[in-house]
Amino acid sequence: MFRLFRSRAEKELDGIIAELRQFLENNYKDQAHTMREKLHTRAKELYDAGKLNAEQFASYEKQYEAFTEQMKNYNHRTFYHS
User: Fold this and answer.
1) N or C of the chain: less Cβ packing under 10 Å?
2) What is the model's pTM?
3) For position 6, what pLDDT does the model report?
4) Domain count, the chain
């Protein structure tokens, strides 16, 4: 569901996702992995601090899991030897 007004926490996480997508598009593997982990860690921190509700947190975790699946075997070795 799209919301017109997003919280500061959501905007921060959306920024991480945008940066992660940019790294994926440009084939920057190490940075993409770093941003994927940052998404997970920061979402958990914001949830624990009460800045995300359970539904919002679940949505970002679902996106994290989708990126994790998409990036399975995503490393320099598979890129250069495929």
Assistant:
1) N
2) 0.83
3) 86
4) 1
